[in-house]
Amino acid sequence: LAKMSKDPEYRGVICTPTKALQDQYKTDMDSLQELYKDIKWADLKGKDNYLCINRLKDSKGKLEDFTYQKVSEMIPTLFCGERSEVEENLRFRLSDTEWWQMCGESKRCGEGRCKPETCFGVKAVTKAKSSQLIITNSAMLCVDSKIRNTRDSEEGLLGRLDTICVDEAHLLENVFISGYTEEISEYDLHDYIRKI
Question: pTM, whole model, 2 decimals?
Answer without folding.
Answer: 0.84
